Amino acid sequence: EYLFTPEDGQAKKDGGALREAGFQPTDLTASWSAGRVIIKVKDDGENILGSTAVAEVLRLNDAIHNATNTHGETFTDLCFRTELGCLESNILGLMFNFRLQNKTSSKDMDITYPYYNPFGGGLWPGLYLGDELGGVETARDSNTVVAAR
């Protein structure tokens, strides 16, 4: 199956803008009838992994999950499903876990990029975040994320 778009079409412009922002379009958005919400920090000096930004992302996620369209359908009705339920992003799952573990803390998330393995290696490389975080800055001597936009 092929998808043809005009050379100067909006889809190509949007894909180019994603790549310029540091995102890599995936098969999910390129091949299937699925979409993603892309969130960027308002100020380039901010970090999307900071506790304040994480709280805002999770508030937006709650709003999306609680919204209903004009046909009465919810996110759960329309989401891309696997046998485990609605497919959601790796970084969103990490943000949920971060919030649960740091309810009273204002510290930033501490993750590695492009793979994050909370178990520290082994045969599993970890969660791939390369197509979910843009504008990533890592520490000079490691793949620990210093900031993401």
Helix and strand composition category: alpha+beta
Distance from N terminus to C terminus (CA atoms, Å) equals 34 Å
DSSP E strands, number: 6
Largest sheet: 2 strands, antiparallel
Order of helices and strands: HHHHEEHEEEE
Mean pLDDT: 80
Radius of gyration using CA atoms only? 17 Å
Describe the structure.
By secondary structure, the protein is of the alpha+beta class. The chain has five helices and six strands, in the order ααααββαββββ. A two-stranded antiparallel ribbon has the order 1-2. Helix 3 crosses helix 5 (90-101). It is globular and about 50 Å long. It starts with 9 loop residues before the first helix and ends with a strand. The mean pLDDT is 80.
Would you spell out the secondary-structure blueprint of this structure?
Elements: H1 10-20, H2 27-31, H3 51-66, H4 75-78, E1 81-82, E2 85-86, H5 90-101, E3 115-116, E4 127-128, E5 137-138, E6 145-147
Antiparallel strand pairs: 1-2, 3-4, 5-6
